[in-house]
Amino acid sequence: MIRFLVRFNKTWANAVLSTPAKTLTRREWYSFTPVKSQHFPGQWVSTDNIPELGMMSVQNPEEVIDLDLPPAAVRGMTQLNRDLFQKTVALPALKVRKELINKVMKALRNVAIKRPGLKRVIEDSEDEIYRLILLDPDKISCLESFGASERAILKEYNVDLEVRKHNLIMTYEHFKSEEILKAVLPVGQDVTTGFSRIGHIAHMNLRDHQLPYKHLIGQVIMDKNPGITSVVNKLNIIDNTYRNFQMEILAGEDNMIATVKENNIVYEFDFSKVYWNPRLSTEHGRIVDLLKAGDVVYDVFAGVGPFAIPAAKKNCKVMANDLNPESYKWLVHNCKVNKVNEKVQTFNLDGRDFIMGPLKDDLAKQTEAIALKENRTSIHIIMNLPGMAIEFLDAFRQLLEEPCTANALPTVHCYSFSKCDEPAKDVQRSAEHFLKTSLEEHFSVHLVRNVAPNKEMMCISFKIPVKVLCRNLMVKDNTEEPAPKRLRSEDATVAVDYSDL
Question: What is the pTM of this model?
Answer without folding.
Answer: 0.75
